[in-house]
């Protein structure tokens, strides 16, 4: 009886040892990407991020926009399946976002305002070229997003020289709008 038990134990342990080894085919499969034909997996608010983010978006702005995009309205106590829209406020030390979500959790509209964040070179150069002896006193970066209409971005600057002040609105291409 002992011989049978030890024999079964030996066979069982031996088979476990072989189960842990990977053959060459399995190793190759680990590095391959799995592609499912006809299936596209994207984040719910990826279109929002693609429209509001670009290469010159300040990092502090991107962080808050990412937080708004990842927010799951369905996990909140105020969520009801057949009710909507939901308005959610996000803020950090530089600004805030007011995002409106539909009942599925998609951002439909957002209004964003950030104070004294780094402006793109084209925007700064536009101010310095048009008003060479003036100093930038303050800046506000505004983003307005609508899922059907796209995104509008602009900077508002208050510039000063001696005792004079001037308010400017500048688009992302550096065009002074007023």
TrEMBL record:
Superkingdom: Bacteria
Cleaved signal peptide residues: 1-19
Keywords carried by this UniProt record: Signal
Protein name: Beta-lactamase-inhibitor-like, PepSY-like
């Amino acid at each position: 009886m002992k011989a049978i038990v030890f024999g079964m134990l030996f066979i069982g342990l031996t088979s476990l040892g072989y189960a842990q080894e990977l053959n060459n085919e399995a190793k190759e499969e680990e590095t391959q990407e799995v592609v499912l034909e006809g299936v596209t997996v994207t984040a719910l608010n990826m279109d929002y991020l693609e429209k509001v983010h670009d290469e010159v978006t300040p990092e502090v702005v991107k962080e808050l926009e990412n937080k708004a995009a990842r927010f799951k309205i369905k996990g909140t106590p105020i969520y009801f399946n057949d009710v909507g829209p939901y308005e959610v406020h996000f803020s950090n030390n530089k600004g805030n976002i007011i995002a409106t979500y539909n009942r599925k959790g998609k951002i439909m509209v957002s209004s964003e305002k950030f104070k004294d964040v780094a402006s793109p070179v084209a925007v700064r150069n536009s101010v310095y070229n048009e008003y060479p002896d003036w100093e930038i006193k303050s800046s506000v970066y505004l983003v307005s997003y609508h899922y059907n209409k796209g995104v509008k971005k602009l900077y508002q600057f208050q510039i000063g020289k001696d005792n004079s002040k001037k308010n400017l609105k500048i688009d992302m291409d550096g065009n002074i709008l007023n």
